Amino acid sequence: MSHTAIVTPGAADPGRIWQGIPSIARWRDRLWVTWYTGGPREPSPDNHVLLAVSDDDGATWQIESTLSAPGSVRAFDPNLWVDPLGRLWHTWNETDEAVAELFDGRGGVWARVAGESGDWSAPRRLASGVAMNTPTVAADGSWLLSSALWSQGPEAAPDPRAANVFASTDEGETWSLRGGVPLAAGERTFDEHMIVALPDGTLWMVLRTLRGLAESFSTDHGAHWTVARPSGFNPQPSSRVWFSTLRDGTIVLVGNATPMTRDGIAVRTSVDGGLTWSFPVIIDERHWVSYPDAVEGDDGTLHIVYDRDRNGAGEIILSTVRIEGGRVTSAGPPVTVDRLGA
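RESULT FIELD:
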């Protein structure tokens, strides 16, 4: 794909019919949330990405920009990440609906980066596949991007059809395939894999399958991975989770609170490298809440964003929790970042 995404400052489609799949970052004392919307359904060539910003810790929001792709190409599954250099990355994925519905066999992870000046760089393509979760810094200093080459669509990309991991050893200038985790045809869905770096350098990957969450491990910075096996977090619905490490070393998993449906959002914590886990703390008990993403604030507050009722209310929700000593000690009420018709 040689096209360039179109960025429109401060625009939002008032006729949005559905929306979801958000991501969050904290950068320059502001909260940033991105998600995708547009068109009559998911997927659609009219899918596009919104980016919103809050200057008051999530009390009020404004649309900063809208990002779309030309022609039959849709933009979807965005993510936000602040890299070790302090730059804000806004990534999204593109696929050509004219080639095949949902996935054209190659996809593409795209990004723009805001640095010291605060201005965004021109969009550029990083890798093949679909990436929707925050990168991880491995023990060797390389940046690892989880990008799945889905099994849907024609054979179009040279990379393996797997939960792939791309690495950058030059601070994000270039990315190359380092390794990946294949799954059996009867288990694989969209992967949506996330990686935690353990203190001994081991990489722990959690990925979505049709049967819940699977896990895999790497001891060579992501080049080789163990055969995926069911994780200890099951039973879980087939849905995205957020899996990361806080500054104090606490590992956190945010996912659904019920085993078979996308109901409730729950937070689990571990202070011993994942050997044992706290009982889940439910922060939102409603139905059809899903796809959490989170970021730790400077004061230790964990800001968690997720969607609710994508095709109905179409809400993007923000919740906050305090985690102290590896335990959730308080939780704020869910607030709405955006909703359809607002």
